[in-house]
Amino acid sequence: MTIQLNGNAFEIDAETMTVAQLVAQLSPNGPPLLIERNGKAVLVSEFENEPVEDGDTIEAIRMVAGG
Does this model's pTM top 0.90? Predict the structure, then answer.
């Protein structure tokens, strides 16, 4: 499947995927991500059940803190 990830075409080698699985691929041990799917924010509590489908537009933003 192909999605738009942060404005770029991104190939996923799977027919089905959830936002949780996508986040695990993008940031396995990194900082948490904020996810927007097709213009709507996805709550962390929804990651396991929110599908990622062919043609979706995903924005992933890393959360970092500094001083």
Answer: no
